[in-house]
Amino acid sequence: MTLQQLIYAVKIADLKSMNKAAAALYVSQSALSAAVRALEEEIHTELFVRSNRGITITQSGEEFLSYARQMTELQRMIEERYTDHKTLKKRFSVSMQHYSFAVEAFIELAKEFGMDEYEFAVHETKTGEVIENVRNYRSEIGVLYLNEFNEKAMRKLFSENEVEYTPLFACGISVYISRNHPLADHLQITFEELKPYPCLSFEQGDRNSFYYAEEVLSTCEYERIIKADDRATMLNLMVGLNGYTLCSGIICEKLNGDGYIAIPLVTQERMEIGYIKRKNQSLSVLGRKYLELLEAYKDAIL
After folding, report:
1. b/e for 208-243, b at 16 or more Cβ within 10 A?
2. Which of 66, 183, 226, 290 is the most exposed place for a label (fewest CB within 10 A)?
């Protein structure tokens, strides 16, 4: 097995096409096919199913490619640092579930350290991708939550993906709604009062297991539920349809404006905000500072 074969396999997976991968890699399609076929024979695993409609990655292939991506990313990082002699910026990247306070902390970090010396990246994304980004070195830190329901399953996922979880702070559950919502004047809200309104939930793509849900109490029965892909759409649905979502209660008016509020939900349930990083990997200076900024938000818990 060679690094070149891994690069070929990753490129095919990214482009879902042998022709496009060959063009991007500046090799003939026959040479590319032969290299990947030799790799599959060596590891006794079929990586791709080939058809007239293109390339499909097998289940075994998905697992193998997760490791291959790590190797190719490390190779890229080594080349950039030690063979590319131009001045390199230090990199910092974080992935997170859809938390405005985690984005706000990232903004404060970028302001403090500046972008002349550092290259920043932020990925507000699905739960599975938060874990994958940390596993594959795309992000140094991933921000997500655990609660009594999902903890066992999530910790198993963390172990399988060679990442470790550390708690930051615990909080109750709040209802996030528009200031014009009919329940906006309540001091507390019950599940019974929420029944007439649509529950808003972030779409998790192929991973729609309850354990991946970004909203606590995901197994409860909701008469009306709407899936959304991004936070801006979620906020629009709160205004246009009197929708609501369940959250930590930490809101950021700087980013989302003052048109939204969080009201405590009447429940004994709790959630814990924490972060993941690669096992046995030390945090950078920026990583440690980012966590300090996150921990400060515990003072904003309702």
Report:
1. eeebbbbbbbbeeebeeebebeebeebbebbeeebb
2. 66
Nearest to 205 by CA among 185, 228, 223: 228
The residue type of 93 is: S
Q: Which residues contact 209 (CB under 8 A, 6 or more apart)?
A: 153
pLDDT band of 238, cuts 50, 70, 90: very high
Q: What is the pLDDT of residues 96-147, one digit of tens each?
A: 999 999 999 999 999 999 888 888 999 999 999 999 999 988 899 999 999 9
Length of the chain: 302
CA distance 119 to 125: 19
State both tokens at 126: 């699905």
**Residue 20, H or E segment:** helix 18-25
151-168, pLDDT tens digit by residue? 999 999 999 999 999 999
User: Which residues 6+ apart lie within 8 Å of 237 measured at CB?
Assistant: 198, 200, 226, 228, 243
